[in-house]
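Pair request: fold both.
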Amino acid sequence: MKPAWDKLMKEYEGHESIVIADVDCTAAGKSLCDVSGVQGFPTIKYGDPNNLEQYQGGRDFDALSKFAKSSLGPTCSPDHLDLCDAAKKKQIEEFLALPSADLSAKVKEQEDAMEAADKDLEQLLKSLQKQYEDGTKAKDAKKEAIKEAGLGLMKSVAAYRKKEKGEL
């Protein structure tokens, strides 16, 4: 992916409204990655720098370039109200009317809700993993009990009988 990304960065170098860049999340860029929610590498984020979205598309140059051409650039925001539909404009106006402390509290509330959703999923996955492990143990114990009850010998006797009938 690195060569495709480097080629895309070169293509958009100096663009007036689009920045294609990379950040080393293991070194000097770690704090930026932490704030942006980067958890694995490589991760591609796009959109408003204050509200980056996770890119889920292809990782080759053609896919990245197609996405950049169709999806990057100015988007609906307080700086670009002309790009907003009526519902988003109304929402932005409502947020702009809030005192800073109230807006900060609402942002924190929503970020906490997002974090809670992540934690809920993590708990669910742990529960499912335990159920899977318990189910696997139960299956293995049942199969062992079946073998101990003589399944192998039953198969041997059945094969013996078949062979005996064939020889007569």
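--- second member of the pair ---
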Amino acid sequence: MACAGSNYTPGALVEAFHRIPHVDINLNTSTDAFSVSLNYFQAVIIWACIPILVCVCLFILMSVYFILICCCCCCGVERGKSNTSRWACAVLQAIFMLFCLALAGASFWAEVALHTDITSVISSTNSISNVVSSASLEAVKFNQSTNTMALTRIQTAAYGNSNATSASINLISYGNQLNTEFESISGTLGSLWDAGFSSSLDVLETARHWAVIGYFILVSIVLVIILIASLVRKVPFVVVMLVILFFTTLLTWIAVGGSLATLMVTSDICHNPNTVVLEISSSPQTEYYLNCNSTCPAQTNPFSNQIGSINTANINIRTQLGYILSNQTLVNLVAVDLSTTQAQFTIAQNASQNLIALTGCTPINKDYTEARQSLCNDAILHAVVQFGLVATLAVCLIVQLFCGGFHAGLISGPSDDEEIILDPFGDLAAGGVSSTNAWNYRSNTARSNPESIPLNDQPPKYSDLTGGNGNHRTSGGYDHFNA
């Protein structure tokens, strides 16, 4: 019964993420087999929180670093920064931001491919739902075609003819038998598969897909705004840029955690998908459809008893109709009713053939195999690619936030074009009265043209102070200064 189960082997990606240690909140090893239980999802939630905790720790370290840098700069002498350095930082930020935009675009492509794979899974589950619905439809079709009144009139007309009377009674009995078997098969198939599951899965996937698409569009818009702000080189723009970048980075790391959790759950499901399905719907019929295929002809259809009863009933119906049709007198009396009865059982035979085909191995097993292929091979590959791209984007945004802090520091202070320096002769030049001139504004023009500096660069000589004879001057101004 398990010959087809060996046809599926988990891929390398499934095995890699399935081997991630599963631990609960107490750091005890928990089960790595997928199950809808708190014990299982504790490990998933813990791993989803790890990227978020890493991001928070990086934010804290970055904040401490910038606080220390700020304190050092405030306590020390202000140093100039060249415009060349500022423009170089802005250009590097712009290039790095373009790289982040490329990552966001690649992640967008991965999301589209992943959505296509999941849509294929949903399409396969819809096909299974259609098989179940078709089985129920065949049963309803037979019930709607049943006309016991016609059989009753045939039985009344056949009174006195033992063969015809017995045949009409048997027709009613076999018709009821067909109806019972039809309802049994359709009811069992309906219990194996919830038709609403596919619809719910479709709604969830649509919401997930558009949420992810909206996130990547938002990230792209934010990156463009930050790119423009970094080139403007104005402090308010850069501050706004850093605030927006902070929340975008945090959101990206949350997305990394969610992506990792999704990969863990998917790999655990795909490690042994048959077991997961059997836990949800455990029955001989479910096991048959999961494992059967054309290479396992010895597998027994669990509906074989019902199918045998349907075939027997159809054979008996044809036999009983033959008894009635052999009595020409009876045929002349109930020609209309007999025509109705023949049409009714023709529908029954067609419905029987369709139902037997639906209960065979091929329809449901084929759809299940396609769903498993789309989920455990194609979807998980694109999910891993998307996880890698989003994780790289998250790291790049952290680096970009760090560089943005340096950029804000570069443009917040004076440059070499506007440097305030200490002039030791400012008080003397002002007659020794004012202390407000102890700082002298110097420009690059003054630095390149020393004659335009209003004060001498050289300190006075001792002879100048003593009048050349070694005696201190007690009167007169210090007219050696070009005040």
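Observation on the second member. The mean pLDDT is 74.
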